[in-house]
Design brief:
Layout: H1 8-19, H2 21-24, H3 33-51, H4 56-64, H5 67-72, H6 78-87, H7 92-105, H8 110-143, H9 151-166, H10 173-182
Length: 183
């Protein structure tokens, strides 16, 4: 059974992590490694703020004194520009190290959590791109099927598309082979 008595540091870190979940969830909209790293660094920036880390102050100053951040306010690029400004701070690397130390101090593997999200998202993007042609062909076939596509036809098309996706995801190689032999 897990220990339910958390230390004050564990509570503070958990609360900060939970407060930044919406930022972290931004990974699901990313379409490149660069965009993923903007989300990751925005997450670290938010954690540093919520944890009240000393390194946050100088990084915050770099953000609020950057004219490009003010110009981007209220636009789709505001978050990215804020993170880019934070990265220019001389204390950015110190902030990241301090966030990592705070996480390690309470037994949280931030690097492992992020790596799982990043690798999974990049694999999904690769698989979706690789299976796009198959999806388009199947959709066209369903749209032009004589007499209209049945629910079973649509189900079969989804299974074929999922199989095409699985062919491009390294962790699913064994499952894809089992499915290939069974079907």
């Amino acid at each position: 059974m897990a220990d339910t008595n958390l230390t004050s540091d564990e509570i503070a870190f958990t609360n900060a992590f939970n407060a930044q979940r919406m930022t972290l969830a931004g990974f699901a909209k990313c379409s490149s490694r660069e965009e993923l790293h903007v989300v990751r660094d925005g997450f670290y920036l938010g954690l540093a703020s919520d944890l009240g880390l000393d390194e946050y102050g100088p990084v915050r100053e770099a953000v609020i004194t950057d004219a490009a951040v003010a110009e981007a306010a209220g636009t789709a690029n505001a978050f990215r520009r804020t993170v880019e400004a934070a990265r220019t701070s001389e204390r950015w690397d110190d902030l990241v190290a301090s966030v990592s130390a705070a996480a390690a101090g309470v037994g949280s593997d931030l690097d492992g959590i992020w790596s799982t999200l990043e690798v999974g998202r990049l694999e999904w993007l690769g698989a979706a791109g690789a299976a796009h042609g198959t999806k388009t062909t199947l959709r066209t076939a369903l749209d032009h099927q004589c007499g209209g596509a049945t629910e079973g036809d649509a189900s079969d098309a989804r299974m074929i598309w999922m199989y095409a996706l699985s062919l491009s995801i390294p962790l699913l190689v064994q499952e894809a082979e089992v499915w290939r032999r069974a079907v």
